[in-house]
Amino acid sequence: MKQASSVVTLNGANRWNERRRTFASTILAAIFLAGIAACSWLLGSSGLSVQLENRNLAPSMTHLFGTDWLGRDMLSRTVKGLALSIKVGLLGAACSVVIAATMGLMAATLGRTVDRMISWLIDVCMSVPHLVMLILIAFVCGGGLKGIAIGIMLTHWPSLARIIRAEAMQLMAAEYVLVARKLGSSRLKVAIRHLAPHLLPQLLVGFLVLFPHAVLHEAAITFLGLGMSPHQPAIGIILSESMRYLSTGMWWLAVFPGLGLLLTVRAFDKLGNHLRQLVDPRHTHL
Amino acid sequence: MALLEVTQLSISFLQYTKGSRQQTVTVMENLDLAVNEGEIVAVVGASGSGKSLLAHAIMGILPANAVYSGSIRYGGELLDEHLLRQYRGNEIALVPQSVTYLNPLMRVGSQLQTKLDGKAQASERKGLFKRLGLGEHVNRLFPFQLSGGMARKVLVSTAAHSRSRLIIADEPTPGMHPADVAEALSHFKQLAEEGCAVLFITHDIEAAIQIANRVAVIYAGAVVEVAPASDFQGEGEQLRHPYSKALWQALPGNGFIPIAGSQPSKSMDLQGCLFADRCMSAVDSCMSKQPEPRQLRGGTVRCLHAT
Amino acid sequence: MRLEGKGIGWRYGNGPWLFSDYDIAIQPGESVGLIGPSGSGKTSLGRLLAGYEKPLTGEVSVPGRSPNHTGYDPVQMIFQHPERAVNPRWSMARTLTEGWSPDAPLLDALGIKDDWLRRYPNELSGGELQRCCIARALGPNTKFLIADEMTTMLDAVTQAQIWHTVLEIASKRQIGLLVISHDHLLVNRICSRIIPFG
């Protein structure tokens, strides 16, 4: 609520309204993503090779992010690391959304017994800390990229599944959905015309909120040294290695990869939150 | 001087039209209303006329996309964010529409208690509960355990403490059994007799005239008439505005006579009198300019023809 | 050819029975008032008759209702809060034509204007929305209409307007009406028979 005199002008020329902010953050996030992909492709793998004559260089024009103790170009390593994290994040988040949607819809539609079982499963999964589950699953799957991706898939779905279940249940009890059945619409028609248009945006938002989570967890687990081989330029591995050299004053080893990770996570977290507001019918006109 | 004085209140909403374009939709224009101490003023009108918005504007809880202008004065002071924070839930109390306004996870007793409460307030509430016929055990119940009648009393008791000077009741009666309505109304009456100013928002005219001193009739965001409650009687000859008359005569207990048309919607931009297109006695001058409020037989009316 | 509930009973979960072994019948063309305090189960009874729920005991029979409850139901129900009975994402044109396509005379009679059709529910008032809900429920196969506090949230003028139209259409098409309300004066006005409930 605002008094008319202040920020908002009465003719409706509110330049940075919520929809425009969302649009802007979508573009920013897309550019960021495209940038990482393009750089990763352009830089090739040459920067990753060991060049002992160039080791421990501070950031300069030839090596923008400096080099590490083996002479590897930190820009290449950061970009490759981020690309890997994003790949794992996208895969993990996408699969989580599919699992969450399936579980949530099953719980909401297949009767009380199924609902109880799924709710119980959700509670169990949520009562164990993410990271512990993730480590266990990654370990069981034999580590590596596959292990981490599967681990992320299997740990991130419960919170979204719970939301989808509640939304679907609420929708199915909504008066307008009940009325639609009485007006002669079949179950399928109601699902397509009433339920899907409401749930699909929720899933998209769910995906965008889960994605930065997945990236962070991927970084965390590689940082702990579980999962991938040390030769892979995962962002967590880069960060954990740089810890050993921080005391020697080589700040660039940690700062640039760390910033890159932060930016990725923040960009998508913001985008997800903006979209969530737009999808919420109570906030249609904000 | 009136305890609550609303002058020239206009409320608009910023809404999206297409994509990211926004427009302002005005839902209330130049509304004037005053409530004195010890007085009950009822606000009646159609749904969508803006009665609840008035309550929300006074309490400072309009939605974030609302823009308002005009002034709301409380005891002569301009009621801004800062003053509201001081008075809200303290001297100014809201009786909400339903139990859904209570926190479902808190026991009744602990959510009635505010930070400022001491021993005196606690014993006062004890007395109040007794007077309302609520047992001591109600304090320990959760909102979902309250029956309809109990919930209503609990909501009334949120406002009924000695600190309140202004009570705003937003549709406290619809769907209630007549006996419960009478009881709820008597609580408000009693509060007014103790010196409170009560703004009673409802679409139930019969309930309004039972307890109110004055009745403000609101139509499409404007107060078209303020009349003493006693004017609502017989065929409504005492009433000033044609809409008030129509409202009175449409009651099932009176004539049940409808008039054609519907309230102009929020997005319509009207030049003249808001009621002109449904009015039997409308003339050309009604279409060109909205009539200003004027005093008439101890009330106020916004109509050119009213006598 | 009547809407009939025989020995029906209902309660929530393991709560107390709101009503049990209850009999009710509505003839085509008559207007029956069901009156009682809030919380007495009037709405639940309405929902059972309209087929929104299966009664826990007894049964509801209506001529023309398909055994598995598919297709346009001959019993339509109108709710107290019209804004909950329409999909907030649908334009009024889409909402109105969900079950059938109301013809111009009906829209006229209910006072539904052309320019409402392009709008969305949050751009219409409660009274305007309720008119649309009524038009939507008055398809050619509607034989009974259950009005659950249909005009409780509306002002007196709109209430009188809507009821005059609905009563006229109902008597012309011999639609049976069940008027659920707590308002004695209203029910006395519009009903030929009144059932006290609860």
From TrEMBL, chain A:
Localization (cell): Cell membrane
UniProt domain ABC transmembrane type-1: residue ranges: 82-272
Keywords of this entry: Cell membrane, Membrane, Transmembrane, Transmembrane helix, Transport
The protein's matches in InterPro entries, at most eight in alphabetical order, are given as: BP-dependent_transpt_permease, MetI-like, MetI-like_sf
Entry GO terms, CC: plasma membrane
Q: Name one GO biological process term.
A: transmembrane transport
Q: What CDD domains does the record tag this protein with?
A: TM_PBP2
The UniProt entry, under PANTHER family, shows:
ABC TRANSPORTER, OLIGOPEPTIDE TRANSPORT SYSTEM PERMEASE PROTEIN APPC
Q: Which family is this sequence assigned to? A: Belongs to the binding-protein-dependent transport system permease family.
* Record's protein name: Peptide/nickel transport system permease protein
Please name the source species. Answer: Paenibacillus endophyticus
- Lineage of the organism: Bacteria, Bacillati, Bacillota, Bacilli, Bacillales
UniProtKB/TrEMBL annotation, chain B:
Reactions this protein catalyses: Ni(2+)(out) + ATP + H2O = Ni(2+)(in) + ADP + phosphate + H(+)
- Locations listed in the record: Cell membrane
A GO biological process held by the record: peptide transport
What Pfam family does this protein match (any one)? ABC_tran
Q: Which InterPro entries match?
A: AAA+_ATPase, ABC_Ni/Peptide_Import, ABC_transporter-like_ATP-bd, ABC_transporter-like_CS, Oligopep_ABC_C, P-loop_NTPase
The highest taxon in the source lineage is Bacteria
Sample GO molecular function, one term = ATP hydrolysis activity
The record's EC number reads: 7.2.2.11
Q: Give the GO cellular component terms, alphabetically.
A: plasma membrane
Q: How does it assemble?
A: The complex is composed of two ATP-binding proteins (NikD and NikE), two transmembrane proteins (NikB and NikC) and a solute-binding protein (NikA).
Q: Which family does the record claim for this protein?
A: Belongs to the ABC transporter superfamily.
What is the official name of this protein in its record? Nickel import system ATP-binding protein NikD
Q: Which organism does this sequence originate in?
A: Paenibacillus endophyticus
UniProtKB/TrEMBL annotation, chain C:
**All copies of domain ABC transporter, residue ranges:** 3-198
- Check the record and name the InterPro entries matching this protein: AAA+_ATPase (IPR003593), ABC_transp_ATP-bind (IPR050319), ABC_transporter-like_ATP-bd (IPR003439), P-loop_NTPase (IPR027417)
Listed A to Z, the keywords are: ATP-binding, Nucleotide-binding, Transport
Can the keyword Transport be found in this entry's annotation?
Answer: yes
Residue spans crossing the bilayer: none
Q: Which GO terms describe its biological process?
A: transmembrane transport
For molecular function, the Gene Ontology terms on record are:
ATP binding; ATP hydrolysis activity
The reply to whether Transmembrane figures as a keyword in the UniProt entry is no
Q: List the signal peptide residues.
A: none
UniProt similarity note = Belongs to the ABC transporter superfamily.
This one is known as Peptide/nickel transport system ATP-binding protein
Taxonomic lineage is: Bacteria, Bacillati, Bacillota, Bacilli, Bacillales
